[in-house]
TrEMBL record:
It holds the Pfam family DUF973. This is Stage II sporulation protein M. The lineage of its organism: Archaea, Thermoproteota, Thermoprotei, Sulfolobales, Sulfolobaceae. The chain crosses the membrane at residues 7-27, 47-64, 71-92, 112-130, 137-154, 166-184. Keywords: Membrane, Transmembrane, Transmembrane helix. InterPro entries: DUF973. It comes from the Archaea.
Amino acid sequence: MSRNVKYITIIFLAELAIFFIASAIPVSNPKLVQSFSTERSQIVQQPYVIEALSIFSHNLVIALTEFIPGFGIAMLGFSIFSTGVVLSAISLSQGIPGLFSALSLMTLPHSWLELPSYAIAAGSGIYILIDKNWKRFVLMIGFVTLELFLAAFTEAAEIVVESINIGYSYLFWIPAALFIYALYKAFTWINSYADSISSASSTPLQGIYSSQTAYSNPGYSAPEFQRQPTQVGVGFVKAGKAQLTIYSPRPIQISSIQILAQGVLPSSVYPQLINPGYNYITVELTGSESLSYGANYVIVFTFSDGTTISANVIYQGN
């Protein structure tokens, strides 16, 4: 698990904890309940699309403030605590424990689209202070915008059908599950892409290996006159992905890849365009579960100019 994913996971768990704690605190505030009920009735009386866009715009403003480096994490804490307090007040007015309402809310699909987006926003605001990767930051803003858009339309659909039968709201787990899967793949791609950018300017692994030349001295960089791309260090295969670093003194395109292992095929490689310097390469593999733990395997890269290199990777399990 990469460092930014760890931050986001920790923040998400803290977000849930604050939400549950706040909702469990008994709050008696008739004015707050009346204000919320009036605002909600104005939203739900609108046509479906307008209702969804109203929810989306409101949530997006909150998320964008949570992207602010440093300040965003405080905004998240305040926002989710306030949500828990409002839920507690509404629940108490209906004679229902606030914590029960919070747990019930977490069974609805829109919650698992909306709440993680706030953790991603706050986590990205913190991580930008560490890795200074603005491309990751901007892509995460787009990702959270998409996630909240899907969450809003899911929530609006739940509101429409709950007046008929509250159980119908759970039918939207079907599209929501597809949304969550697609968002997971997009999130993984963004992090892989951003990591490849970061690794191009980071210190390489010790030793350089290629099919042409090998440098065994730690920290030794390939000379600029060497026109052949080379592997830096030894890569690894884990969870169906081969990850390694390639140094190239010039831009060059990967035209094909092959792994010398029976029953294992590469399905994709990213990035395909190798930039000058150090490039963090990810190769998606099918059938990698047949590999032997701790064994060394060779991936052959063929480039657009016809040159090839043999890269070494070690299988570390799934």
